[in-house]
Request: fold
Amino acid sequence: MLVSRFVTLFILYFTAGSGTTVHDSYNDFVEEDYASQLDYKNPHWCHSPGLTNGEVTCHSPQGGAHRSTLGTRCEMRCDQGYRLLGKSSIHCLASRRWSGTAYCRRMRCHVLPLIPHGRYTCTNGFMVDSRCDFTCDPGYRIEGQHSRTCERKGSWSGAQPDCEDTDPPKIKCPPSRLKVAEPGKLTAMVTWDPPTATDTADKSLDVILVGQEPGTDFKEGASIIRYKVYDQARNRAACKFIVRVEVRRCPDLLPPLHGFLTCSSDGNNYGATCEYQCEGGYERRGVSSRVCQFNRNWGGYPVECVPMEIKSDVKTVSALLDQFYEKRRLLIMSAPNISDPDYQLQNIMIQKSDCGLDLRHVTVIELLGSPPRETGRIKESLLSFEVIEGLRQAFRISRYYFSMLLLDKLGMDRERFITPMASDELFSYIDSFLLDEEERERLELHRDFCD
Reply:
């Protein structure tokens, strides 16, 4: 009140001395309702400060426990896990208000990103002290830390983990299989459906075959077929099965004494055919061939090679030659008489090479002398006069000088010799011109037999 009045009197006095007309407005002055004077001792000048989830520490000019007197300064602190927003220090103003405001907001971390092929669960969301545990989808494994914690500073502990694909693909091969080879074959075609692979991570996988392709011919025995597959993480899976081809076989067929076998295919497998052939001087008695059956037995019965029997007591030359047709060769020796030197020389060489003639399927017929004492013979067996005469006429063999005639298996006149032939020369001619390839191979196998 005193200050207000002093200001009014000062204004009146100043205006009166200025030489202007002054109207006395004193009586019009209205006294205002002035605020009360500052009272530093009023313990409740400002309202008592508070801070939810925090603590307020105040210091008053009056000391003691005053918390809201004029001029009091208060420090604001938040509880653990909370962050102060606003003024950290406020003081009580003459306007009975504090110089600022503050509040505590709960601290939180940023939202964790999702990890591919995984997820996480948190104990208290993204708030401080919340722990987030990471898990991966089936087939994947955590690489890195399994959990992260929201720390007091609002940041996550550790680093974000990854979900690595550790589950290998799954693949199942077809069952093993057995296939019997067809008749006359040593292989069999085997087919199967290729396996498919699955994986927890990859939708499409490349299956790799290690081994022979399906639908091809497999040889006798067991073949291992493998399949393998890799996923994008290079996890590997594999499977295998066995393809077995069985060649049904008969017991080994033994060749007959003085004979040999010529077999097709592998010799004793199902469907193989073995033909019997006899060595020189022998002929077959029995079936010409036998076949290996599915039941592993040979069809037919065993064959024998018996000494060739030439019937010399026939009445015609055709009856004699029919016995040699496609079986043997004929070497016909003719001489005027048994004392002919060329005949004697040739006869000696023929006798010494008799084994070699047998190997070459050659039979010797001797025609000697003139009627009525003319003779013809195959070794010790004598020929009739009709057969002797028939041979001479059929092949134009003279009685008056030494000659030798070589006939092939078909009875064709292949070579004539008018002088004695050494066995080596005779054999060379036969081997070169009358033997087929198979006969030459057999001759090579038995050449030492005559030594």
Q: What stands out?
A: The chain has a mean pLDDT of 87. Residues 317-450 form a domain with the Glutaredoxin fold (CATH 3.40.30.10).
